[in-house]
Amino acid sequence: MLKKKLPDMDLMQIARSGQCFRMEEKQEGIYALVAFGKYLEIGQEGDVFSFSCSEQEFQEIWRNYLDLDTDYGIIKASVDPGDPYLTEAARLGWGIRILRQELWEMIITFLISQNNNISRIRRSIELLCRTLGEDRTAENGRQYDTFPGPEAIVRGGMAVLKTLGLGYRDKYVYRTAQAVLEGTLNLEELKRADYEEAHRRLTAQYGIGRKVADCICLFGLYHIEAFPIDTHVKKILEVHYPLGFPHDKYRGYGGILQQYMFYNDLNEKLYRTARIVV
DNA sequence: TTACAGGTCCGGA
DNA sequence: TCCGGACCTGTA
């Protein structure tokens, strides 16, 4: 078991920050995730983490995936102390990192997320992977499913998508998979594009509006200047920033601050009922 | 029963 | 450019 001491990271906070829907707590303090076709378990005790992979795989895949070369301490320290709301949000979400997840998975995930609730999003994605993903076995014997590529989704067709509880989003998923296969939506070009160009191309796709495009840019392309405004963030901005959020102060990485705010809003009920000890 | 979920599309003003 | 209604479906 590989052990690492890592700063500014908390698995529960990452799992509850709304950026990933497949990260699952297997036991107390042990989380499982699937990415790049691989299965990983991470255990956390304070700032010491154990990984169910080799040092080589950690360096090749997970170090980047967990965004470990970004110093979140600097980001948190840049928060204006005269901004009590953001200061508190960053304090409570101190262990959030932006995972560098796979672009295709983020496109489909956030297409499904629209006008939807988190438990149903998770359920739909789990079903999607179980139905159309590849069934694999990890080195420790765990069974897991990969996230299905565009080929698998088109092969399954609308008939299979209808069984996943996606509602009216099923046609968005299908047509996006088609667009990637046909080359209308080129993922490699999307990865090379800057934020504005990527956002423009994404919103041109049927079913992807501003908000979903921003989520894809932030979580699938690591354009951390993207600042998705959903119902939660919209409410936060109305209440705490009636004169507008000070984007100029945090130019280039607003998306990370948005995550602190989003996490805070999503989980404040849990904090209030003291189910999570801060 | 109605409202709400990490919205988008579409038609009309 | 802006606005309102429709939209799948599960949960409270």
Automatic annotation (TrEMBL):
TM region(s), chain numbering: none
Source organism: Ruminococcus gauvreauii
Enzyme Commission number(s) from the entry: 4.2.99.18
Name of the protein described by the UniProt record: DNA-(apurinic or apyrimidinic site) lyase
Reaction equations catalysed: 2'-deoxyribonucleotide-(2'-deoxyribose 5'-phosphate)-2'-deoxyribonucleotide-DNA = a 3'-end 2'-deoxyribonucleotide-(2,3-dehydro-2,3-deoxyribose 5'-phosphate)-DNA + a 5'-end 5'-phospho-2'-deoxyribonucleoside-DNA + H(+)
Keywords of this entry: DNA damage, DNA repair, Glycosidase, Hydrolase, Lyase, Multifunctional enzyme
InterPro entries according to UniProt: DNA_glycosylase, HhH-GPD_domain, HhH_base_excis_C, OGG_N, Oxidative_DNA_repair_enzyme
Family recorded in the similarity comment: Belongs to the type-1 OGG1 family.
Annotated HhH-GPD domain residues: 112-276
Superkingdom of this protein's organism: Bacteria
Xref: Pfam families: HhH-GPD (PF00730), OGG_N (PF07934)
Upper lineage: Bacteria, Bacillati, Bacillota, Clostridia, Eubacteriales
